[in-house]
Amino acid sequence: MTQSLDRPVTPPRPDLLDAPPDRPARRGWFGRYYTIPLAVAAAAYLLYQLPPYLTFDPANTHIPMQFPLHYAVLAGHVMTGAITLVTLCLQLWPWLRRNHPAVHRWSGRLYVFAGALPSAALALVMFPFSFPAGSVAVLMSGVMWAVTAVVGWVRARQGRYAEHRRWMLYSFAIVWGQTVWGLVIGLTLFRLPFAIDITYISESARWVGWVGNLVLVHWWLERTARRGQGPVVTGRRS
Questions:
Q1: In whole angstroms, how far apart are CA 39 and each of 51, 92, 93, 192, 232?
Q2: Of 6, 85, 164, 176, which residue is the least packed, with the fewest Cβ within 10 Å?
Q3: Which string of DSSP letters, residue by residue, matches 24-90?
Q4: What are the Cα distances from residue 136, in Å, to 139, 176, 196?
Q5: Is position 99 within any domain?
């Protein structure tokens, strides 16, 4: 596009070079309101998982305790995981992100430092004592969850917002797949009319959810990136 000779060209702001524009007018119903089913699913999961740990009574859990502080570590893991699910919904809420960026930033800090990092660390503490089936999946998802959350936060601090968005979506995909989808897969397999070995159920519940989520999110990011390709200036889209 040619520029008028009597109008100076305004250079783009450096802090917006990596920030993809919002296009609410082009979004369908799901694109505008996807946070509603997300929040409902998160609330249902927390209502199912949290009560046994709010009583601080190890007898209310169905997991056998393997060491003296097992219940305390498990309760801390679940409660910090609850913080991640709540802040995840806030982070993905487009209206909040556009109209209250300060709230978006603070909920992001809570997600990383009060949710993802302590919850992942506590999961790693329990790894040597966990049920062997699917334990490697929990170990890998915990490490990758923490890494993607920290990298996403660092990219935001650097003003590299497109990369921040990508890494945080990876982080969200991992935690949602490991918690919500993992629970759904496990309960579904347990309720089938024919018996399945507990080893296969545990492996499926702990692998399929977060790996499948991660693959889908990566596919969606690459697909939407190709769809929106335009002229490139100094290695970035204009």
A1: 18, 10, 10, 27, 37
A2: 6
A3: GGG--HHHHHTHHHHHHHHHHHHHHHSHHHHTT-GGG-SSPP-STTHHHHHHHHHHHHHHHHHHHHH
A4: 5, 18, 20
A5: yes
Determine the distance from the C-alpha atom of residue 21 to the mean position of all C-alpha atoms in its chain, rounded to a whole number.
Answer: 22
Which 3 state secondary structure label does DSSP give 237? Answer: strand
CB 84 within 8 A of CB 118: no
Task: Write out the DSSP string of 192-204.
Answer: SSS---HHHHHHH
Select from 106, 83, 84 the least CA-distant residue to 96.
Answer: 106
Q: Say which amino acid occupies 136.
A: V
Asked whether residue 13 is assigned to any structural domain, the reply reads: no
The structural domain count of the chain equals: 1
Length of the chain: 238
- Residue 27 banded pLDDT, cuts 50, 70, 90: low
Whole-model pTM: value is 0.80
Hey, what are 30's tokens?
């799901």
Count CB neighbours of 27 within 10 A: 13
Does 236 score more than 50 pLDDT?
Answer: no
The answer to whether residue 38 is domain-embedded is: yes
Q: Which residue has the tokens 């959810």?
A: 209
pLDDT, tens digit (0-9, with 9 covering 90-100), for 92-131: 999 999 999 999 999 999 999 999 999 999 999 999 888 8
Asked if residue 126 is part of any domain, the answer here is yes
Report d(CA 101, CA 197) in Å as an integer. Answer: 48
Quote the domain boundaries for residue 203: 29-225
Q: Rounded to an integer, what distance in angstroms lies between the CA atom of residue 74 and that of residue 182?
A: 17
